[in-house]
Amino acid sequence: MRLVCREFCNSSTKAFGQVYFADLHVLLVEPSLDILVEITAHPIYGRCVKTIVCGTARTIKPVMEYDEEEEEGEPIPTLSPEFERSEGHIAKLVTALNNLKHHGNLEVALGIHSDEAWTKGNGFRLLGGPITYDGYVVKDFDASSTLESLLEATSATNFPINKKCFRFLEDLELDRIIKNDTIFSSMFSAASTFNTNTSIRLDFVQGSSSEPSSIMIGISDSNQLDLTNILLTGEIWAFLGSPYWTSSYIRILKLALELTEFECLTLTDMTIDTSDFQTVFAKSEGFIKHLKLSNVITSESVPGQGEPTEVLCYLKDQLQLESLTLDRIEITKQIDNGLQSTNISIDHLIEGEKVFDGHTEVQEALEILISRANSWF
Q1: Tens digit of pLDDT for each residue in 180-209?
Q2: CA distances from 85 to 80, 97, 150, 376 (A)
Q3: Cα separation of 138 and 288, whole Å?
Q4: % the chain with pLDDT above 90
Q5: What digits encode the pLDDT tens for the residues 302-317?
Q6: Domain locations along the chain
Q7: What is the pLDDT of residue 293?
Q8: Residue 377: burial class (beta carbons within 10 Å; 0-12, 13-18, 19+)
Q9: What are the distances in angstroms from CA 240 to CA 244, 246, 316, 373?
Q10: What is the spatial distance between Cα 96 and Cα 103, in angstroms, rounded to a whole number?
Q11: DSSP one-letter code for 86
């Protein structure tokens, strides 16, 4: 009976941890990090952790003092001086990462977040005004130092950072971070030093939306790059209210490709047009030899103008592909300034996944697909 009770207890505890402790959001301040250490030290909860993202926020004054200082201008966010000078935040991160290593939980995604949408409900409160934590007002600030502290902790513990997660307000915070070449480059440069199982996830939230839009970047070896769930279109998606996402994606992808030369490229769950596609991959045209497109929607650069097969023509004329895999490809032509569209799927022209090997076979296949698609329209 005692054994049965223990199994029931462990099972229910694990289920609770998988729901509430899989995705942890912390600030690099003592109260928040103390909770992180306790969770990671727990023999069951510590094994349930899947993601740890550190907020770029810093504590400032107690809430009662905040209104007084607000009249004279916004106070500068800072960590507790004593805690920061003693590197207490790094020490607690080191303890938490060592706890995870003790449990054998090395597949945790690490990163930073800078958005209130994830902050609320994670130990923080919104008291009719500023976000507060433990009686202190917090503000988004200093993503560079936050990431630097996290990387320092991983270095001290030799904790693998094959999985990274970055969460931003796409049109505001990402712009600020991109301007800092050091932090932006560090998102990807460390990834290129790993040979296997490296993945980078970037989440964006717009306004008060609770559901983020995500980019998944996977590097399975030094020559393989996988991109998932990316809207790589400009004009078309501006009609749908997402122009900022597009510009952010383009800058991120350009940097990822500039830092590492990839011969094998996989694009999954993407929407692309020729102009932005060419902008992103311009410097990689000579390196990409093997391309796989899965569940990809293509379109002309300018809605209602040009040929809907522009992307296929670009692949044929600009890339020296040695192999090409196509699966669930849809060609879209915009009509009536983007409000209506006529769609064609490559599945109507070829059935199932098709693999073409050798440069000559790839060229011939693309020529046939372009011809058939044009005749369809």
Answers
A1: 656 666 655 554 443 345 566 666 555 444
A2: 9, 21, 16, 67
A3: 45
A4: 12
A5: 655 667 788 888 889 8
A6: 9-191, 215-377
A7: 85
A8: exposed
A9: 11, 11, 30, 26
A10: 11
A11: T
- Condensed to tens digits (0 to 9), the pLDDT of residues 25-58 reads 888 877 888 899 999 999 989 999 998 988 877 6
Asked whether the beta carbons of 138 and 132 are under 8 A apart, the reply is: yes
Residue 31 to residue 138: CA distance in whole angstroms: 13
Look-up: residue for tokens 């409160």? 125
Q: What is the DSSP letter of 191?
A: G
Residue 322 buriedness (CB in 10 A; 0-12 / 13-18 / 19+): middle
Is residue 255 within 8 Å of residue 183, measured between CB atoms?
no
CA distances from 354 to 351, 357, 372 (A): 8, 10, 16
**Highest mean pLDDT (candidates 44-53, 226-235, 264-273):** 44-53
Which element (helix H / strand E) includes 233? Answer: none
> What amino acid occupies position 77?
P
* Contacts of residue 185, Cβ cutoff 8 Å, sequence gap at least 6: 255, 259
DSSP H helices, 223-327, are 235-238, 243-259, 274-281, 310-318
Alpha helices in the chain (DSSP H): 2-20, 30-41, 45-48, 63-70, 81-85, 88-103, 116-119, 143-157, 173-178, 181-189, 235-238, 243-259, 274-281, 310-318, 359-376
- Paired tokens of 122: 């994670």
**What gap in Å lies between CA 132 and CA 362, rounded to an integer?**
58
